[in-house]
Structures are given as C-alpha cells and as structure tokens.
Amino acid sequence: MSAALQIVGFLMALAGTLIIAVSLAGDRWKTSTQHGNVITSSVVYENLWKSCSEQSTGIFSCKSFDSMLSLQAFVQACRALMIISIILGLIACILSLFGLKCIKVGSSDEYAKGKIALGGGLIFITAGLCCLVAVSWYAARVTAQFFDPLYLGTKYEMGSALYIGWAGSFLAVLGGSFLCCSFKKKPKSTKKGGYKYNYPAPDNDFTQFKERKDTSVASKAYV
Predict the structure, then answer these.
(1) pLDDT score of 142
(2) Using an 8 Å Cβ cutoff, are 77 and 134 in contact?
C-alpha cells in the first residue's frame, strides 16, 4: 500500500512541478482588453518578465522589462519565489526517486528509503507553498488595483497563468503529502527469549536452616 501511495504522490508532485514551470513561463499573468472603436481593439497582458500588446488587426509586440530594480517589489518577490519553487521541485524529484521502494537504486533498507521519500515530500510541499504564495500575492495586487477607484493606470484582470500556478501548487503540496504519509516509523525491537525467574534470595534457605538448628539445640539442652 505504501509503495502505491509513493508512486501516486511522486507522479502528482512531478506533474505539479512541471505545471509550475509552465505557469512561470506563461505570458498572461494579468490581462486587459481595450476597445478603440467598433472595428479595432487591443489586448494588453503582462507576466513577470515582459509586457505585450496584441491588436485585433494582427499586430503583435512585446517589450521586456528593462531593469529589475525599477520593478515593483512584489513582482521581484514573485520572481524569486517562483524560481525557488522550481529549483526545490527539481531537487525533490531527484531525491524522491531514490526513496521509492520500486526503484532499486541507493540503499536497500526500506526504512532508509522511507526517510529519503519523506525528505522529498517535505521539499515538494515547500515548493508548492512558494508557488502558492507568489501566485496569490500577484492575484491580490491585480484585484486590489482593479477595484481601487483612485488607481489611474491600466486596470488588469487575472490571467490564465495564475490559475495554472494554483493548480500546480495544489498538486505539488498534495503529492508531497502522499509521500510523507507513506513513511512508516521503524518498529521497536523487542528481545525474544527473555524470561523472568522468581526465586528466593540465596540467604533465605540458610536463614531457615539456621533457625531450625538453633531450635533443636535449645530443645536438647532443655532435656
């Protein structure tokens, strides 16, 4: 049962890591549609790396962000969290492979392999949480700007990459949890063949013998 749970958890976490990478590379973290007239309209969208504009006439253009230091702090933090998430996911994939019971690589001790799988599961959970924080933070900022009546810039809506990131983080956390649940503690070793003997103290027989001897000597002296 634990082997099947390990395989299911590893596949789910691996899929989650790949989906997180797709989310990071996705173009539409936030999007906005601007209507010019009845015929022409344009779609403006951004991700963590660039801003793009697509006209209904077919004209398409993108511009990368010039300087990282000129970006808003939350965008820089989301970049770092997503990159950390992917790096942790790759480390967890390699580590969990050595902990799977069906993989005859590494240690042959099931308890040791279980501890390796447990470590991989914890790293998968951490990777999923990093992605979850980044995507949720970005979505919260987009939503706050959209409903802020004092915000004079372009009002965006949440893009498809955010939903992809949520799905990837959910799979990574769930798969890592399955890997952690597959770990079983090592049973306590009990000594077999140990028995308890109830026997009188060595001096008890001697004491009883001495008392009998003293009694017989006293009776003879009386006679």
Answers:
(1) 92
(2) yes
Higher-scoring residue by pLDDT: 27, 172: 172
Token code pair at residue 86: 């992917």
Within a domain: 172: yes
Rounded Cα distance between 178 and 208, Å, is: 68
The tens digit of pLDDT for each residue in 80-133 reads: 999 999 999 999 999 988 888 777 665 566 777 888 888 999 999 999 999 999
Give residue for tokens 């749970």.
Answer: 5
Name the pTM for this structure.
0.77
Question: What are the backbone dihedrals phi and psi of residue 63, each rounded to the nearest 5 degrees, phi first?
Answer: -140, 125
- Residue 216 domain-assigned (yes or no): no
Q: Which domain holds residue 75?
A: 2-181
Location of structure tokens 């951004």? 46
3-state secondary structure of 197: coil
Contact 84, 20 (CB under 8 A): no
Domain count, the chain: 1
Instruction: Tell me the three state secondary structure of residue 217.
Output: helix
pLDDT on residue 65: 83
**Terminal alpha carbon distance of the chain:** 86
For the segment 29-84, what is each residue's pLDDT rounded down to a tens digit?
999 887 655 556 788 888 899 888 888 777 788 888 877 777 888 899 999 999 99
Closest CA to 143 of 162, 157, 159: 157
Paired strand residues for 51 = 46, 63
Tell me how many helices (H) and strands (E) the chain has: 5, 5
In a domain, 131, yes or no: yes
